[in-house]
Amino acid sequence: MAEAKNQSSKSSTATAEKNGVQKAADGVFASAQDAADVVKTTYDRAAERLPEAVAKTQVAARDTQKALERMPNQGLLVGTSFSLGLGVGLFMSGANRLLVLLALAPAAAMAATLVAREDEETPTKA
Predict the structure, then answer these.
(1) 26 exposed, middle or buried (CB, 10 Å; 0-12, 13-18, 19+)?
(2) What confidence category does residue 80 fall into, taking pLDDT thresholds of 50, 70 and 90?
(3) Domain spans of the chain?
(4) Contact of 109 with 64, CB cutoff 8 Å
(5) From CA 77, how far away is CA 58, in angstroms rounded?
(6) What is the mean pLDDT of the chain?
(7) Alpha-carbon separation of residue 37 from 28, 41, 42, 48, 50 (angstroms)
(8) φ and ψ at 72, to 5 degrees?
(9) Shortest CA distance to 101 belongs to which of 119, 114, 113, 83?
């Protein structure tokens, strides 16, 4: 009789453990589904706004290039030097790489404008 009671107790414990595991698994799956829904919603919103963001970025880049083309060579040299110094200083101090890259971006744009000017001023040999 004690064995039957013991087996019955083991059986009910095993069933309770299975139910607990099933509930935990259901909770994990529900959380994963909720997370997937949030990701999908966020992706859809970003996809809707992407063309507008790209257009604004193109306008800003074009305006920046026009402003750089109007600057004198001395201004471009000073800006390039400052931006390079800032970027190197941030790099040497161990700043975040993204921050260093953002500090060097103006130097690249200004240097490219200076190089383009030198190419225009240099006569081509025939």
Answers:
(1) exposed
(2) very high
(3) 13-61, 71-126
(4) yes
(5) 25
(6) 83
(7) 14, 6, 9, 17, 20
(8) -70, 160
(9) 83
